Every structure is written in C-alpha cells, then in structure tokens.
Amino acid sequence: AKAKGKNNYQFFSTDMTFVTSSKLVLENDLRRAFSNEEFFLHYQPQVCASSGDVIGMEALIRWQKAEGTIVSPAEFIPLAEETRLILPIGEWVLYTACKQVKEWHNSGYPHLKLAVNLSPLQFLQDDLLETISLVLATTHFPAALLELEITESVALDDAEKAISRMHALRKMGIQMAIDDFGTGYSSLNYLKRFPLNNLKIAQPFVQDMTTNPYDKALVEAMIFIAHSFDMSVIAEGVETEEQLALLKELGCDEIQGYLFSRPLPADRFTQLLVTGFPS
Ligand code: C2E
Ligand code: CA
Ligand code: CA
C-alpha cells in the first residue's frame, strides 16, 4: 500500500477518516485565512558573498491563524496548489511584496532586488503576464528588480510552454531564478534551455558540503556550470561561517541563510537596512 499521498497526507492509512477530515479542515481554514487577512510576508536578505552587502530579499509567505497558530508554508502551499487557492494567494504575495519593496526603494535603497516564489500552477496560468504587468504598473515597481523563483517542475508537463513563458517574462525585463537546484529530475537537460539569470543551490547540498566531499564537489560543479551559462549563483540555507568561507572560495555570488538573518517581518527588515547586520 502507498504510505503517503501526493502531499504527504496519508490517504491510505488505517485512520483514513481522521486524515481526510483534517485535510478538509485545513482547506476551509485556508479559504477563510485569505478573507480574514491572516497572511503576511517575511523577507529574508540576500547578501553579496564578497562585500556582505544586502542586495535584495526573498519574500516568504506566513500564515498565522486568528487564534495564534502558525502554519508552515511547507504544509499549506501544496494544499493551496491543489485547491487552486494559490492563484489569489500568489497574486496577493506579488502585489504586497512589490508594494513593500517599492517603499524601501523610495526610502533610500533603490537597488534592492525582490525575489518572489511562483508555484508551477501560477507560472503556467494563461493570464500570468497580464497579472504581473498590472502589479508592476500599480506599484510602480521596476521589472528589472523583480526576480521570479521557479522550480524545474514547471517543465514537467509541457517543457516548450514553460520555456516560452520564461522567454516572455525575460522580454518584460524580469529576472528568472531556478529554485532548489539539484533536487529535481533532469536539471542539466533543462538548464541549457531555460533562460535563467540566477541559480539557487538547494539547502541540503549547502548544509552537507563542509562534511561530505561529494556534496562539496557537487556545489563546485553547480557553480562552474551556472557561470558557464552566464548565470549567477545563490546558496540558500547558509548557517555557518565554515559554509560561507567555502562558498566564497568556490566562487558563489550570493548568500541567503540564517547565518546572516532569518526571514524578517517588514519593520525588522527596515531596521536591518538602517543598522546593518548585528556583529
Ligand atoms: P524555498 O523557496 O526554498 O524557501 C527557503 C526556505 O528555507 C524558507 O522556508 C526559509 O525560511 C528557509 N530558510 C532560509 N534560510 C535557512 C537556513 O539557513 N536554514 C534553514 N534550515 N532554513 C532556511 P519557509 O519560509 O518555511 O518556506 C518553505 C517553502 O514554502 C519555500 O521554500 C517555498 O517553496 C514555499 N513558499 C514560501 N513562500 C511562498 C510563496 O509566497 N509562494 C509560493 N508559491 N511558495 C512559497
Ligand atoms: Ca524560493
Ligand atoms: Ca529553495
């Protein structure tokens, strides 16, 4: 028997009734969360490896229920995709993040790049380009400072469609990044055909690279390949000085991780821009 369903809900467990209803509860909560305004964003700094300067940030959604419980995006994003609620949620994320980062641009940090995650469903929507154009126009956000993070899975069903969509976004001046690189199925095959600006090395490689020579070799190879394709490289999940030193030695361009900062609410991010990282 299959132990786990697509989204780790145990559809075929003996305790099926309980599992099914808890999923339904979560789905209902999710619908209400949106109208109850229970979502907010955190921003995690992305730092230049050589200078230590904040170059930009990744927007990450947070859900805190009215009674206080926090639900992790790893738990509710898959359900949001399944129920297509990710479409309004994703649009809200894009709009809210552009509006916030535009404020930072206006208050003396005009260079900051904003990275936003796009779920595959969102990325493949027919009206994606119109939606993004509208958000950029409404918030006066410069396309060149917006980076969309996608995963290889966008190409699972129809690679041609995904690739032409990436080209269309690039034509708008938007930057494209591949997220969680190295964890999907045919990374190298797609890499030569995806018009990408940035490659994000997935956390597990970064976290094991200082203890496992094979992970170190893989990170080195990913950086080499990305640079050969004129892409810059960002390492995520960087938690230690040792990882940072090794990544710099291997020529990694940008760093994101708890070592510099956890994802922060907007007001704390503003504070960080003003005071810099605590030493
Ligand atoms: P992701 O896009 O790979 O985001 C990076 C995750 O790693 C974030 O988890 C972040 O908080 C965490 N992280 C950052 N630095 C470190 C570190 O040094 N160590 C460790 N252990 N973790 C670190 P988070 O915020 O819980 O998000 C989980 C996933 O949920 C994201 O993975 C992304 O796939 C999805 N997600 C989050 N926000 C959005 C969103 O607005 N839209 C969509 N479609 N997906 C989102
Ligand atoms: Ca991401
Ligand atoms: Ca990632």
UniProtKB/TrEMBL annotation:
It comes from the Bacteria. Residues 23-277 form the EAL domain. This is Diguanylate cyclase. It comes from Planococcus kocurii.
